[in-house]
Amino acid sequence: xxxxxxTSLNAENAFKVRLSIRTALGDKAYVWDTNEEYLFRAMVAxxxxxxxxxxxxxxxxxxxxxxxxxxxxxxxxxxPSRNHTLPAVEVQSAIRMNRNRINNAFFLNDRxxxxxxxxxxxxxxxxxxxxxxxIVFGVIFCIVIVATALLVLSGIxxxxxxxxxxxxxxxxxxxxxxxxxxxxxxxxxxLDTKGGHINDGFLTEDERLTPL
Amino acid sequence: xESPAHVASLxxxxxxxxxxxxxxxxxxxxxxxxxxxxxxxxREKARPKWGNPMQFLLICVSYAVGLGNVWxxxxxxxxxxxxxxxxxxxxxxxxxxxxxxxxxxxxxxxMRQGSIGAWRTISPYLSGVGIASLVVSFLVSVYxxxxxxxxxxxxxxxFQDPLxxxxxxxxxxxxxxDEECEKASSTQYFWYRKTLNISxxxxxxxxxxxxxxxxLTLAWLIVYLCILRGTESTGxxxxxxxxxxxxVLIIYLVRGLTLxxxxxxxxxxxxxxxxxxxxxxxxxxxxxxxxxxxxxGCGGLIAFASYNEPSNNCQKHAxxxxxxxxxxxxxxxxxxxxIYGFKATFNxxxxxxxxxxxxTNSFDLEDGFLTASNLEEVKDYLASTYxxxxxxxxxxxxxxxxxxxxxxxxxxxxxAFIVYTEAIKNMEVSQLWSVLYFFMLLTLGMGSMVGTGTxxxxxxxxxxxxxxxxxxxxxxxxxxxxxxxxGMLFTMEAGNYWFDIFNDYAATLSLLLIVLVxxxxxxxxxxxxxFESDLQAMTxxxxxxxxxxxxxxxxxxxxxxxxxxxxxxxxxxxxLQYQAxxxxxxxxxxxxxxxxxxxxxxLLVASSTMCIPLVALxxxxxxxxxxx
Lengths: 212, 628
What we know:
Chain B: GO terms for molecular function: L-proline transmembrane transporter activity; metal ion binding; proline:sodium symporter activity. The complex is a heterodimer. By secondary structure, chain A is of the alpha+beta class. Chain A has helices spanning 21-25, 34-49, 88-97, 99-105, 132-165, 171-184, 205-208, and strands spanning 15-19, 62-65, 72-77, 113-115. Chain A has a 4-stranded antiparallel sheet, covered by helices on one side. By secondary structure, chain B is an all-alpha fold. The radius of gyration of chain B is 26 Å and the shape is globular.
């Protein structure tokens, strides 16, 4: 790249930037012109000035080149003497620190304003101290335990009452008989007990089966 | 609703794990209004009845409609020709489903006892059939609740924004996303890594995952809560578990049809591919789907019918139940395919956008210049104008095809927990849709569990020996505790592989054998003429020649055919294989089962099928000695 005549700039200290303004803003997209470039250089200079040893960085030290239609371009930051470029590592860390400010200046985000070779720090997901699912689990678990305990205890109490009141009657059947007559309103069919059953008293074992 | 082993389906184009869904479940053996029932040996007690025939119908429908209708049938439809799969499906329904369902209901209504008692009445040598049904139900209950565990897990995780399976977690130094998640997708990552924490192979057992163990405990507590009072509690639960899935399906139908791209999926599904009709696998899969979907052979249907009035027209009910079951399957197919269409369109448009971005960046074109409509012509222009650069970029350009996105056929847990979640995360208000969906899965699964639980408890509570020592609540509690303890196996890191083993082999062959023996027992041991006259005396209607022909010839032949197909399939494939998740590559790989896993498979199949001959032999020996 020939920004400064005669001085070969170290291309590995240059970074490519890519903007997707129309993707981000749609109809409200602004045109990328020299004023926007000026703002960009100002933001980069601002980021470099935050680095302890580089407070003297000026806008004129930030150089842009190869601006395309995309919009994409290369930039490099030189030192005050304009002879060397600042090492890539410094520029990288400076941009990373101030990425949010730079994005906001252009109404873009990490995806629509890309610095190639400068990875962005991804926002950590919101991590509550107690995961939400455990809270929901705890609530449901307690409800189920309470309901189960209630049912079991009421069953035990019912059985104890039956045992005291009517000893000798099987509790389950007793409850069943009551509920049958109450629920259905029809007493159990007296013929039902033998309905469909084979009466063993009349058939011998051999006759009961159809011979194979 | 349940689906047979994936062996029978032999999936050709599986992107994700091809799980069949469990058999037997889907039962909601609904309850009589709080009535206890008498079982064999307690003939002095009156037998309770259903309050009205509607209850019986509702309970049979609940029993039959389950997870398989939702996640197995759409897959079969897609694999075997879309709209044209309905042809073998309906033919099998009429030829196999309705007759066998009617047979079981008729047996139950005639014998007026549960499965063990009913078959003992037909022939004491055949009480092994009832015991085999019990063993199958037990095996199913052990692994089936794990699905509810996962539904609970996803349900509890649906209350977050954003949904945890919609974004990849960050890697160590926060510069990018986790590697495994990048290679696979965020939904797959959440399923394999966060939910299952799956190990690379079945040999590496790993530890019990405490999160899954907690959810499994909760699931079993809910089941216990529903069955602990027996008929009293389950009766009320079933109204809820039977109706909620339909409500959610209707909501999803409306939402699904209004999604962008839904019509793509529907057109794809309903376009018949007539040549698939010539594929024998389509017919076999239709037969197996109908067979397992109705829950035959598990003993539940016999139990429900035993509480009927003798004069009840169970023929009508058998037809209605099977029609409702199949209609639900087709209905959920429509919902699933609109969701598929949405997901495929979304992925296709994403793919196009990626290509556009790649070209825009490589050639520094103006942002927004490339769109989907001018993509092809611009590509040609670039290829001619900058040939060298284009040839560099070309390998990275993916061929985006809507057809190939729609072709990814998935069934079982892969469909429910990976494909559906992927579609849901892209909908608006995704938390709401997620909660609704997993709640529906949970109620479908819970209903089945409650049914299976009752099918196990019935013989236990009726056995004089056990019920004299322990009250009903304690027996239920013990059963749930034992099942929960064994179920912890499935919460280990290799647990999902064991789940697949149980899912594919625990009930398939056994149920076929049980129903075959049932059919032969009724037609030839008890005597078809005798059964016919019994039914006529009982219901007042004459038995149609169609049923007689089906029971005596067609259905046994069909079942024998299915049986032979399954066996030959097992034998021909040689060693059985499974799909293992490879974390380094981000997709599944096929591996062979180790010998001890094969032994477990053999044991599963043998434990239920061997009951029939062993009990027959035992009865014979007992009789022989008694005569002496």
